[in-house]
Design brief:
Elements: E1 3-7, E2 10-13, E3 18-25, E4 31-40, E5 47-53, E6 56-59, E7 67-72, E8 77-82, E9 91-101, E10 104-109, E11 113-118
Parallel strand pairs: 2-11
Antiparallel strand pairs: 1-3, 3-8, 4-5, 4-9, 5-6, 7-8, 9-10, 9-11
């Protein structure tokens, strides 16, 4: 079983910055395929914010140019630097981890961290 632990988040004024961090650990030997971030605002579906796979990265158009994702393969960590935050960025942010273990693919989620941007 892989544990996914998030940190960061909080309350910030519009135009401010926050940094989210996520670490995956535990379980037996596995291959990390992707690490990224999703978010879910009240009354809305969960949506992709940014993700880094073994083939590259994808960033949602709504945050492109403001958010930067970085992944440390050696430490199995992923960070999301969020700049120029807008009230529309208010949501619960979830870390997403995808691994391959003994030939099978698994997906894990963090517990979620609240990001609130005040206008």
């Amino acid at each position: 079983q892989v544990q996914v632990v998030e940190s960061g988040g909080g309350l910030v004024q519009a135009g401010g910055s926050l940094r989210l961090s996520c670490a995956a650990s535990g379980g037996s030997i596995f291959s990390m395929n992707a690490m990224g971030w999703y978010r879910q605002a009240p009354g809305k579906q969960r949506e992709l914010v940014a993700i880094v796979t073994n083939y590259g990265s994808t960033v949602a158009d709504s945050v492109k140019g403001r958010f930067t994702i970085s992944r440390d393969n050696a430490k199995n960590t992923v960070n999301l630097q969020m700049n120029s935050l807008e009230p529309e960025d208010t949501a619960v942010y979830y870390c997403n981890v995808r691994i391959t273990q003994w030939g099978r693919s698994y997906e894990y989620w963090g517990q979620g961290t609240q990001v609130t941007v005040s206008s």
